[in-house]
Amino acid sequence: MKEAGMGNFLMAVQRVSDFSVLTRLFLVIMLPWLLAFSLLAQTPEAVKPRPPVTQEDLAMTDLPELPGAPAVCLYYERTDNREKSERSVFKRIKILTPAGRDFANLEIPYYAFLDEVKDIKVKVYSPDGSSREVKPEILEKIASKLGESEYRIKTLAIPDISPGQIIDYEYKIKPREDSPFVYILGDLIMIRINIILINLTMPDLYSSLGVSWDLQDSIYIRKARFEFVPDRFIGVARKDKYNLAWAANKLREVKPAIDDQGLKLELTDIPPFEKEEFMPPESNEKISFKVYYVDPSIKNHQAYWEKATEAWKKSYEEFMSGGKALNKEIQTLVGGETDLETKLKRIYERVQSIKNLDFVPEMSEKERKKIKVNDNVTDVLKRNYGYKNQIARTFAALARAAGYEVYLVRVVSRDEKFFNPNLPLFNGQFDSEMVMIKMGNRFRAFDPGLPDCPYGVVYWPKAGTAGVTFEDEQLKFFTTPSLSSDDSTCRRLALLRPDGRGNLTGTIRVEYTGQEALSRKFDNREKDEIKIKEILEEELLKKLPEGSQVNLKNLQGLKERSAELTAEFEATVAGVVHQSGNQLLLPVYALTNSRQYPFRSAFRKYPIYFNYPYTEIDEIKIELPEGYEVETLPEARSRDSERAGFSLKAQLAESGQLLIERKAAIKKNLFPVSDYIHLKEFFDFVQTRDEQQIILRKKN
Asked: Whole-prediction pTM value?
């Protein structure tokens, strides 16, 4: 069982690019007060009574609410105390079946460079009511790392657990005594004053996230209690100068209690979260609850979005000011060039050459100290480094200086979340910037903040997602340009021959374009050639029949700034040729297995979500074995709709080879649950057609 992440525990998070004069002034004026006030937060904590283990709990052998469940969480309690910078967790789990023993180990993620897990206690109850204190085996692993900063997972392994037993876990996450006063992590600045976390969420001056609770776990929760104790200071506001508010996702009729001490939430009967293949981001579908601070001047969501977006507009306009320096840079870049496309490409190439600090794999403390704060695009150009949004702003500023009609837009990266207009957290939702430029009669989108992103291509999390601008004193929400299935293709060209042992051997050339190429390049940007070779070979093997073998012989385009990538493999496609008397049988589409056809279930709970629309194209040539000729070829088949398309054709080419041409396309990336039956039927149709047999016979 894994505890929710600690991403919202550190509230003092601020992008260096937005570390404005106002923020610096705030630090100079307020830090002495906050340092003194931090001592007041060290108040003793009252011991909270927890429900005892009952005879009903001890006697339970099955869960009536979910028969056959391997385990159940009888009680869960979590308190996020911002005054103490402390999170305390208590969890009581009942093991019901042998499979439930897997839930006896607890995973605790935390930021090792700032926090530590303390006061770990584990108690085990037997069905007869006896109990014992247990010292768990503690395992530790690094989940992610940036420079010298580590995000770790501590695992509490409980030995000798059997069905019927109940386990109580208890622990706290506290600041390390040696945690720094100011810590810079990539493009983030974290400020911790003793045990007070200072929130400097700029330029969103009107709200700030307090805490985010994922309420669902992998097992059923019978009863849960959550508590949030807010900071006494938030920004420059005292406690009576902000309002505490909340937003729930997938949770009806919830009534938290809010008073001067904070917020309390009690829940019962929380169903387990069950993943489905091709589902939207979990944060969109999980039952969750967010507590946030909001400026008392904000009366409704519309007013919040208007003020927050206007503040962002003022921030980026200030950053994009460059005057003569920009004009000089433009003159150097484009000179007397008059072609609009050529000019813009030169500008784009210039900003893509800027070192992107968001994607530097590791920097030492010494290297980080050399990084200066960029106050404007002139600093970015002069120092030739910046963070992703600074680089986007630099491209926008240069294009504007060159005479283009330019709009900087803020977008929600949809790889981890969808936009929720009822959650007033500007930076928490709109996390990236892209650039829209009018070229002729239409606007084109650019993604200069992504390293090595090709000109005119936008990485898929920023395509077809919520965007916002503030132009002519007006707030405007819109959807960024969507991708089509033609924008992302995977084309396989195979030349194969039967080897006499039931296999097809030969070569497979895979050509990726658009998002299919860009996503593989981006995901593997920090890996060496050996690891990339393993990844691409494993990807192809997962598609082929079990027992197949592949060997990557050539890879082209990996380091190029293009939306193309080509991989050439030697391949053995195992077990697809079958002898029956004087006949050979093989499937019309041999480059697959049953796992490649999703949606086996008759029911669907969540919407269907693909990262982007895509097209797969196969052109397979198979040499006939000596002495054989074609007896039967399947009839050509095709199907097309607004959701998906498919075609398959097998023929005997003039060269004497079998030629199989196949095309499958998913035309949208998000489908409602009501479309599941249609998508399931489509993939069932595809599988049936792919499994049709080609029959070869021996010549007389």
From this structure: 0.86
